[in-house]
Design brief:
The chain is about 80% helix and about 0% strand. The protein has about 280 residues and is mostly helical. It has one domain: ABC transporter involved in vitamin B12 uptake, BtuC (Orthogonal Bundle), CATH 1.10.3470.
């Protein structure tokens, strides 16, 4: 098996294992649109990294200039900037939602589409760089290398550990925030922790399946698992298993039929969801 397929399987499996239980909370809390807003801001992070890197390269005197090295790093690897922008935007959205300045769906719609539009404009204006915008919109999991897997694994495992360690307060706050607060759970801290974990996983997943498809990987497997399970823990485990199967089957179809990887994985996930929904309901 080619090395790039093995790397894609490893990266996709890791994202699926993390995204399964986290996606359950997205479904339970009805925060799919929140995730989409963060995902769309990922392109803005890419654009800002590329723009800053391009300006630093133009201003540098030679290749030994620190500005040149930083600019080269930003142009060749904008994903740390995507993570930073996603985390900042997630915190900003949470603060604005708490102030109730606008209805949540209106605020999220403005941020999601506004950041995507601004990111596209910045990328389109950089004539000095040849930017493959499709790889950012739909991902390029087959281009994942060993360094990318490490960059995905370290924060990904940290998010999974935080999720497992805070499972009870997260679940209690999701079921009934008032009762959870009465039990001594810090609701604001729990919400902030969840939002930051979501932003981190979305930013990491953009590298694999792109800005437009990452949220689907977080919500379709849990929605499929919801029909097959009857407890939160079972649903979280089933969501991870289903997501892993989606990744493997999608990559197999991509390999044998020469299809784009990201859209193929999401299409397989959608087909499995439809198949499960057609099953008779359990009594």
């Amino acid at each position: 098996m080619p090395e790039f397929i093995i790397n894609a399987l490893l990266a996709g499996t890791l994202l699926a294992i993390i995204g399964g239980p986290l996606g359950c909370f997205v479904v339970w809390r009805r925060m799919a649109y929140f995730g989409a807003a963060i995902a769309h801001s990922g392109l803005l992070g890419v654009a800002l990294a590329l723009l800053t890197g391009s300006l630093l390269l133009d201003a540098a005197d030679n290749s030994n200039d620190p500005g040149y090295r930083l600019g080269s790093t930003l142009v060749n690897d904008p994903w740390p900037a995507v993570l930073i922008v996603s985390l900042l935007l997630a915190m900003g959205l949470l603060i604005l939602q708490r102030r109730h300045l606008l209805a949540s769906d209106t605020l999220l719609g403005i941020v999601a589409h506004g950041s995507l539009a601004v990111g596209l404009l910045i990328v389109a204006s950089m004539a000095s760089l040849q930017v493959d915008i499709m790889s950012y919109l739909f991902g390029d999991i087959l281009a994942v290398g060993d360094a990318d897997i490490i960059m995905l694994a370290v924060p990904g495992i940290a998010v999974l550990a935080l999720l497992v360690g805070n499972w009870r307060p997260l679940l209690a706050a999701t079921v009934n925030a008032d009762i959870a607060a009465a039990e001594g759970i810090n609701i604001r801290r729990t919400e902030l922790l969840f939002v930051l974990m979501l932003a981190c996983v979305v930013a990491l997943g953009i590298r694999l399946v792109g800005v437009l498809l990452i949220v689907s990987m977080l919500i379709i497997p849990p929605a499929t698992a919801r029909r097959l399970t009857n407890t939160p823990v079972h649903m979280a485990i089933a969501a991870s298993v289903i997501s892993v199967l989606d990744v493997w089957a999608g990559l197999a179809a991509c390999w044998y039929f020469n299809l784009p990887a990201g859209p193929t994985i999401v299409t397989v996930s959608m087909l499995l969801f439809i198949a499960v929904m057609l099953l008779p309901e359990q009594k």
